[in-house]
Amino acid sequence: MNRFLKYFYFFILCLKALECFTPFSHGDAFSYHLIIPKHIIELGFTDTLSKFFPTVIAGYFDLLYLIPLSLFKNTLAGQISSQLLHFLIGQGLASFLMTKIIKDNQLKWIAGIAALTLAKSGDMFLYAKNDGVVVSASLLFYYFSNKSILRKGVLLGLLPSIKLSGVFIALPLILNEIVFKKIKLIEILILGVTSILIFIPICLYKFKMTGNPLFPGLLYSFPDQLPQYLIDSYGGMLAAKLGMSSLIENLRLLFLGKIICLLIIPVLIFQKKKINTAPFIIAILCFSLYLFVNGAVPSPRFFFSSYFFLIIGCFGALDSSHLQKKWIVPVLLILVLVDSKLDKSLTRVKNNLVDLSNLSSKEIISKRIPRSRVWDLVQKGEKEKLVHVFSDRFPQQFYAPQFVRLHHYPTQPQVRFFDQCSNPSGLEKFQYYILSESGSKNPCYEMIYNSSELIGTVQEFKVFKRKPSQSLL
Description:
The protein is mainly alpha-helical and 473 residues long. It folds into 2 domains: 2-344, no CATH class; 370-466, no CATH class. Helices cover 54% and strands 6% of the residues. The protein has 20 helices and 5 strands. Strand 4 and strand 5 (461-466) form a beta hairpin. Helix 1 packs across helix 18 (342-358). The longest helix is centred in the first third of the chain and has 26 residues, at 76-101. It is globular and about 80 Å long. 41% of the residues are buried.
């Protein structure tokens, strides 16, 4: 049985890796996670950090995407290799760490399978994002329980530096060290100083760009420093208050992230021997911090680590006495597979193989990410002569031609004037305009229509090219 479980774990690991060959069209990945390294490659760090505002919500891990994009550029291969990088360092590594943390030779592989097959928001680990790396970094910290305190300090500092919501798991991990591990005062100081040194460059950059060192957190603590539209935009997503309905929904998401997590109830009630409660406490504290800060917006990606620590707690509480009955292990495996969604994974892998066998990369992109066809209508620029594109509702720019800059007005301060058309002359810097068909009484729309020609329509978006001799005013 041990060998079967081991091989089955690696089969699912490979299956999920192959699923990364799916050309996902995810907003965050195509709006900044992959765009930051793309811009850095084209024009360097200084230009990107000073002119591309979404860098303030990125983290250290996004810089690793420089590796696949340096090799493959903004191509299908670049996207797929970036997705694979996130999966392997994120969920892949996290699941493997589960097999090291859980000691039983059978349960550790089932726990690893559970970690690879979350039922809620599992696709987030496959996108070119950073959510999975927060989880693997938190598990590395927990796995290095008796290792170098300096190494753990680095990992602790990386958690919020990868993604600001990493603080939700960083604080419970610190408490675990102090309360359960009872580390010495000097070790606490080393842990704190090291983690702060790692995190402080992120805070300083955020402060320089927004006046808020923890942006987009603590929005209402720095109201005088932030434009109102940023407070309105991010306040609804990252500073929403908890209500009864959202509490119930969040609890449902927590315990149904994997059905196997419901084992926590009988484990805690009927377990006679003393068990390690630390993983349960870490999971619940992480979840509780999320509820306190942003509980009105149910989103498991902000408390993914809770799922993994609940799994560690449940499987860690089972010992050899529970496994003497031969039916226990198969039942546990079935419970893990019930909500695994492996059928969806198999379908995706099959479709990927069919497309890769019969279509070119350009055809696959056009088929799977139809909105990318917008960029077929835009000419590439040059390093000394960038092509500037304005968009009212279209933020995805990964497949934009080289040296093309998309200015999406809801998220970039430089073009916020478009909202009230307060500075229409600012539109004259753009060579192209990507506009939705929703219609608007905003006079800037009419100015664009009168000074540009429609060169194509892709889904709900119209692409206009500015007439060289035509002024908007």
